[in-house]
Structures are given as structure tokens and as C-alpha cells.
Amino acid sequence: VPTPERTRQSLQGIASSAAACVGSRGVDLEINDRRRAALAVAIFELSPSFGLDPALVIEVVRAESGFNPRARSPKGALGLMQLIPGTAKRFGVRDPFEPTQNLKGGMAYLSWLLQHFDGDLTLTLAGYNAGEGAVERHGGVPPYRETQDYVKRILSRYDGSLG
Questions:
Q1: Catalytic: 64?
Q2: CATH number of the domain to which 130 belongs
Q3: Domain total for the chain?
Q4: Prediction pTM value
Q5: Is 131 helix (H, G, I), strand (E, B) or coil?
Q6: Could you say which of 64, 98, 136, 146 is catalytic?
């Protein structure tokens, strides 16, 4: 459960974090300050119901889509939290490009992974990136450069946001 100080620090960082992504990695340039603010509010309102720290969710959204609700990866992942169609369906997302649905589905998956991996954030993030099956098959973070870099990047940014 985030403390008021951590929440305040995260709120202060969201605007700069989101702004830093605009124009990079194929981010839709129509993402404006009002939309980023609405996404931040949605993340801060929804994340506690999934038992997640909003600062963590913000870092996942930043890494996955750069805050672009219409993001589409070459591997078929869609929306803010880059849900693949099977994961979207599994967690009740009918329209992965609708921000609230995508956030709820992505947070449900993150929460499920966190429970599945007994609270191990490293394995949770690896599972989010590569799939829980890959983490199980390899007995830990898979030996994929993309997944290893993803976990390190999110953990370093998330740890840095904690003060």
C-alpha cells in the first residue's frame, strides 16, 4: 500500500515521465497533457484495488507503450499495457485500446503474476514481459536480452521513484 509521501512523489513524477516519452518509440503525438493527467488519475485510482503501487504501474505503462493507448507492437501486443489478445481475453478486456479496460486488464495480470510468483517483483516483471510460462520453464528470469533489460529498466526506475 503506497504511503502518502510515495504517492505524492509518484504524482510529481508522472508528468515528466509521460512527457519524456512523447515523440519517442512511436508514441502518438496527440497524447497531450490532459490525456496524460487522465491516465495518471486512472492509474492512481485503479491500482490500489489490485494491490499494486501506482508508481510500479506507471513504470510498466511507460516501458510498454510510452503512455500511448493506441500502441501496437510487432508481436501483436495492444494498448497502454501492451496486452496480447489471449491475455486481454483472460482478464476480461474486450477493447484493448480503451484505456480503462486495458489498465484494469494489465493490472489484473500484474497482480496475478505477483501472487503467482509469491511476491517476487523480478519474476513478476519477467513474466509480464516474456509470459509466466517462460519464467517457469527457465526457473527464473529467462535468458532473453529483451526480458533481462526490461526487468532491470523497470526496477531501476521504480526503485528510483521511491526516494
A1: yes
A2: 1.10.530.10
A3: 1
A4: 0.81
A5: coil
A6: 64
